[in-house]
Write a structure and sequence with these properties.
Largest sheet of chain A: 6 strands, mixed
Number of helices of chain B: 13
Strand content of chain B: 15-25%
Largest interface: A-B, 29 and 25 residues
Number of domains of chain B: 2
Oligomer: heterodimer
Radius of gyration of chain A: 17 Å
CATH superfamily of chain A: P-loop containing nucleotide triphosphate hydrolases
Distance between the termini of chain B: 28 Å
Helix content of chain B: 55-70%
CATH architecture of chain A: 3-Layer(aba) Sandwich
Distance between the termini of chain A: 19 Å
Structural class of chain B: alpha+beta
Number of strands of chain A: 10
Strand content of chain A: 25-35%
Order of helices and strands of chain B: HHEEHEEHEEHEEHEHEEHEHHHHH
CATH topology of chain A: Rossmann fold
Helix content of chain A: 25-40%
Shape of chain A: globular
């Protein structure tokens, strides 16, 4: 039996928008195994990003449960959630959120700044740079990098703490097609070589076509869940 | 990199805003430092002036404020000379005059204290009193000993002369006490002082008395005040007490004014930090998404505020000392004195207030929800 890394039970999430209540998720049941390379697709407002944020301990559900490594995230107190964010998951966003005044190297080390004796992460960062092909750009500032390079830096930042799951929120949204494909293949490599589970939220069918599982979300519900042989 | 270096790097990102926030603190601390150094200078100068009397007592007319208006019977000297508690007695005549040529300084005329003394004056001051030249003799006429700073201001030296009323005075010596006295006191033979002031031959302004030992001072006071009506004996310590009470009032006023200045500066910090937190909301969201604790984020904002306070405090301290020095060059009567207490007080004040003004932005940043912050909400 494959090793289950994420499980949700009847996950719902409501937002208040002015007077009305938005039902972003209406009972999502999902199991994700370690090492999967999957995409969550769906039209705007279908709840993709909301689901990703709940899985990655960035947000809390209205009801239902999220298990990450058999730990019920809904039971973890707010002040302890940082441990999950720091050690278990990594996020990559559409807008790279690199800090413009810091070098690429410094940006990659941001997650470990609060950790004592963090000098040891420098070697780790160099290793990741060579993995994504960014070694020559370590000392450059983000504005000296192309969009693809910036996103690769963001990947290194997400990987600096050896997460089990990498969450990618529309990460090709600001990149041209060729660059986007390169980024996805870099992630595929990381998935295969390191066994990191990668979960995409995407509009882009080309990204989805690279994954071995596609979950479709419509109006806050899973409407299709296909495993693709790759 | 740790949170401290990370935060200080953040300060450099918005150079103009950080600079303005720092400027606010600089002005406040500069005000505190310059006023306090001038206050301390004044205080120590007064203290030293009184220490110059080194335990001497002054016998004067009851209720005298300015010794130039005191009148004492010279016969008192006779009465006291046999007192075993007294080592030396110096009758003195005080005359206040304005130097006709102004004496420079850009403030119009210069008031000086002419003090007519006898030979016994040498016995009540310290042996190193005269810096250059010599004492005149009691029987001389038209001789003077000037305070060193006054001599400097007038551009006079030993053997030069100057004129008061219609009398020419030849300078025989320069004394130096390193106090305010150097700036306005001139010793002349008592006969000259008597002539200038029209004081009758059996009177003087005050009698200065040196006790055989400091602890005999009380006995002398008791003897004088119970045997001779209309006189009082003043201890320099009492004058010091009064002066320091007045200075305390001034010091409190100085603090009140400067506190407001630094307070305004710290509002500037709070404003700069709030703006910076608001602008960087998505970035703070990212920090939290990558596993920064709330307290890490808050700490980082506090360090930034503290950085502004420390930098502003140090620059303000420097500028304050320079400003006080400039004030001293402009107004020679001022002395400035930078004490450790002043350094700690003004820096501590700046740092404390900057921390305080960082608290609200820090708490605001710490409480941001990672996902809403990333979306810039």
């Amino acid at each position: 039996m494959a090793n289950e890394v994420i499980r949700t039970e009847n996950l719902t999430k409501n937002y208040r928008l002015g007077e009305s209540i938005i039902h972003a998720l209406r009972g999502v049941n999902l199991r994700i195994n370690a090492g999967e390379f999957m995409s969550i697709m769906g039209p705007s407002g279908s709840g993709k990003t909301t689901l990703l944020n709940l899985l990655g301990a960035l947000d809390r559900p209205t009801s239902g449960k999220v298990f990450l490594d058999d730990v019920d995230l809904t039971q973890v107190p707010e002040r302890k959630l940082y441990e999950i964010r720091r050690n278990k998951v990594g996020f990559i966003f559409q807008h790279f959120y690199l800090i413009p005044s810091l070098t690429t190297m410094e940006n990659v080390l941001i997650p470990v700044i609060p950790i004592r004796n963090n000098a040891r992460f420098k070697d780790k960062a160099k290793e990741l740079f060579s993995l994504v092909g960014l070694t020559k750009r370590m000392k450059h500032k983000p504005n000296q990098l192309s969009g693809g390079e910036q996103q690769r830096a963001a990947i290194c930042r997400a990987l600096i703490n050896d997460p089990e799951v990498l969450f990618c929120d529309e990460i090709t949204g600001e990149l041209d097609t060729a660059t986007g494909e390169k980024i996805v293949s870099v992630l595929k490599e990381i998935n295969q070589e390191r066994g990191v589970t990668v979960i995409f939220v995407t509009h882009d069918p080309k990204v989805a076509s690279k994954s071995n599982r596609i979950v479709k979300l419509t109006d806050g519900k899973i409407t299709s869940d296909k495993t693709v042989k790759s | 990199m740790n949170i401290v270096t990370f935060s200080l790097k953040n300060l450099r990102r918005r150079k103009m805003r950080s600079a303005l926030a720092i400027l606010g603190i600089v002005l406040g601390v500069m005000l505190i430092t310059s006023l306090l150094t001038i206050m301390d200078g004044l205080e120590s100068s007064i203290t030293e002036s009184l220490e110059l009397l080194s335990g001497n007592l002054i016998i004067q007319k009851n209720g005298t404020i300015d010794q130039a208006f005191s009148i004492v019977n010279l016969s008192l000297v006779e009465n006291l000379s046999s007192n075993p508690d007294i080592e030396a007695i110096s009758p003195e005549i005080y005359v206040t005059r304005m130097l006709p040529d102004g004496g420079g300084g850009g403030f119009g005329g210069r008031f000086i204290n002419l003090i007519g003394v006898t030979d016994s004056y040498r016995e009540i001051v310290s042996p190193e009193y005269i810096k250059t030249g010599t004492y005149f003799s009691e029987s001389d006429r038209g001789k003077a000993i000037l305070g060193s700073k006054l001599a400097d201001r007038l551009g006079k030296d030993v053997n030069d002369s100057f004129r008061i009323d219609s009398t020419d005075f030849n300078i025989t010596g320069i004394f130096e006490t390193n106090t305010l006295v150097d700036l306005f006191m001139v010793l002349i033979p008592i006969g000259d002082a008597r002539a200038i002031s029209d004081m009758s031959p059996d009177k003087v302004s005050i009698i200065e008395v040196k006790p055989v030992a400091p602890e005999r001072a009380d006995a002398i006071r008791e003897y004088v005040e119970s045997n001779f009506e209309g006189y009082e004996v003043v201890f320099p310590e009492e004058l010091m007490q009064e002066a320091s009470e007045i200075l305390d009032v001034v010091r409190n006023a100085v603090w009140a004014v400067s506190s407001i200045a630094v307070l305004i500066g710290s509002i500037g910090i709070a404003n700069a930090m709030l703006m910076s937190v608001m602008e960087r909301t998505p970035e703070i969201g990212l920090l939290k998404a990558t596993g920064w604790k709330n307290i890490d984020v808050g700490y980082s904002v506090l360090i930034e505020a503290l950085g502004i306070g420390i930098i502003g405090g140090l620059i303000g301290l420097l500028f304050g000392v320079v400003a006080a020095q400039m004030a001293q060059n402009l107004i020679p009567a001022l002395t400035v004195r930078l004490t450790l207490t002043t350094i700690f007080e003004s820096l501590g004040f700046a740092v404390g207030l900057s921390l305080l003004s960082g608290v609200y932005p820090a708490v605001k940043a710490a409480r941001l929800s990672p996902i809403r912050a990333i979306r810039g909400e």
